[in-house]
Design goal:
By secondary structure, this protein is mainly β. The protein is 13% helix and 34% strand. Among the domains are: 20-159, Jelly Rolls (Sandwich); 191-267, OB fold (Dihydrolipoamide Acetyltransferase, E2P) (Beta Barrel).
Length: 363
């Protein structure tokens, strides 16, 4: 009789344990000043949350509070599927505070500081934005590989893959998040293009080439020929990831197929500084012609082009005595004649031009 009673008690206890294990567990609660929908049911004020509940905020913000002090603040209209250690954003804008992670578009977004916050906005199925507030944040892919690291105040936009995101099943056991650490590396052959300053962790044959991408702030180890010549330069590198243990400080190894220098202004989307304009040749000097309004002085010589003046030859009887004759060399005579001829030629040329001057620009 005693044995039968003990067996009955054991069966009853096992049944109770199975029932408790099969029931959903409490993961937190929601607080709102208006109304909120939990799995489609309208709730006013506050409600307890269980594994796999889908919470959609109404016209007011809704605060999802989890053990340890972390919370998700849902903006009006936002919807999140909740689990103990993370939530899956379906649409809308959510602010994550504390160490409770948020999965958006298949990527795990989390703050690196208990006092930090991350704002995630998914208004459509094509992309979402992540903004780090009050501390650094990071984004990892489903394999746990670091995709981006954001410093406080920085915002990045991520595209969403075409494949639909599969939410974890709502079971009694805790389902690991899609980006839980410790999972296998992503399949090899993923194409990546990174931009940044190429450096080497230590000189010599066995040094590793490292590059921190300026956009994602993630460090990669690069392997390939010709990298020694690019150390210290800003480069664009394209290649494929492969399964290998990266150097210290790097998250992945890239087999580089192409690497070349690229100015930082182009990497950051700026426009190159325009070259200064070439110095223009100075304009030719403006040689003014004779003004028709200015009358020549009375003691001036004859105007260019005017007929020669008729003068009466002096009377020889009254002429002053001639000065003593000075002998000049033939060279002096030739120079005087040439000077007079040149002066006459200039006068004739100006006379033919009608008193106007012309200017020729230098070639």
């Amino acid at each position: 009789m005693l044995v039968k009673l003990q067996s009955a008690i054991s069966l009853f206890t096992c049944g109770c344990l199975v029932s408790v294990a099969a029931s959903p567990s409490n993961v937190g609660f929601v607080v709102t000043s208006g109304q909120v929908q939990v799995d489609g049911a309208i709730v006013h004020g506050n409600s307890t949350l269980f594994q796999g509940n889908v919470v959609q905020a109404g016209d007011a913000t809704s605060d999802l509070i989890f053990p340890g002090g972390s919370n998700l603040l849902l903006q009006p209209g936002a919807a999140v599927e909740v689990f103990r250690d993370y939530g899956v954003l379906q649409h809308g804008a959510v602010t994550e505070r504390g160490l409770h992670a948020l999965v958006a578009g298949g990527l795990k977004v989390s703050s690196l500081s208990p006092q930090g916050a991350v704002f995630v906005d998914m208004q459509d199925r094509s992309h979402f934005e992540v903004a780090a507030q009050g501390g650094s944040a990071e984004v990892r892919n489903p394999a746990g590989v670091l995709v981006a690291r954001l410093e406080a105040g920085k915002t990045l936009t991520f595209g969403i893959q075409d494949s639909p995101q599969t939410a974890p099943a709502a079971t009694g056991q805790q389902t690991p998040p899609p980006a839980a650490s410790g999972q296998a590396s992503p399949p090899t052959g993923s194409q990546l293009t990174v931009h940044g300053i190429l450096r080497k962790d230590h000189p010599g044959r066995y040094g590793h080439f490292l590059l921190t991408d300026l956009t994602s702030n993630v460090t990669y180890e690069l392997q390939g020929p010709g990298l020694d010549d690019l150390v210290g330069a800003s480069v664009e590198a394209t290649g494929s990831t492969f399964e290998a243990t990266p150097a210290q400080g790097a998250s992945q190894v890239i087999s580089v197929s192409d690497a070349h220098q690229m100015p930082l202004s182009e990497i950051r989307g700026g426009t190159p500084t325009p070259a200064p304009p070439a110095a223009e040749a100075p304009p030719p000097p403006n040689i003014p012609g004779p003004s028709p309004e200015t009358a020549p002085p009375t003691n001036a010589g004859p105007m260019a082009g005017a007929p020669p003046e008729t003068t009466t030859p002096p009377d020889v009887s009254t002429a002053p005595p001639s000065p003593p004759f000075v002998t000049h060399s033939d060279t002096a005579k030739i120079l005087i004649i040439v000077g007079i001829a040149a002066g006459a030629a200039v006068g004739v040329a100006v006379g033919l031009a009608g008193g106007k001057s012309s200017t020729v620009s230098p070639e």
